[in-house]
Write a structure and sequence with these properties.
Shape: elongated
Strand content: under 5%
Distance between the termini: 52 Å
Number of helices: 9
Radius of gyration: 19 Å
Largest sheet: none
Length: 195
Amino acid sequence: MSKGELTRQRIIEEAAPIFNQRGYAGCSMQDVMEATGLEKGGIYRHFSNKEELAAEAFRYNMGRSVRFRMDAVVGVEGAVEKLRAYVRSWARTPSVIPGGCPMLNTAVDADDGNPLLRKLVTEAVQDWKGRIGRIVEEGIAAGEIREDVDPRKIANTLIATLEGALMITRLEGTKEAMRDAQATLESVISAIARE
């Protein structure tokens, strides 16, 4: 990487937690300047505007989050066990990104105000649904999961339950909701497994 590319990457890495914790509107360029030690011109040399930086920060946060989540299923044999490992990973570590799940935070933040971030979050949700759905499809093909199971419904159920539990966990300051979600999803996974 060139010096300019390294600086750009450093700006993204240092701005990413700020955007995730404070949201697009709540993160000022002054915050980014303080975090990076750069002047506004030094930041804008690498990004055309705040929105571009926020988009790159979201992509960076999502990349870290996805890698962490998918690492939980690496080496796990079988679709049912992969789903269980995925859910256990969430219960153990609800988020590896300061401020919580970047998808949930950005979805709420961008819902009414930022079309670019809303588009990126929508794509991230579709990607997530696709990853879970593929695990279910593999399980159906391998005879591990019942043929009447709809991969889309399982993906939506897992995502909605995990994200909802994460939100409650953060609000209440306890892991009770996450433990409840894990128990419920373990039951769902057991119910879709072929006997």
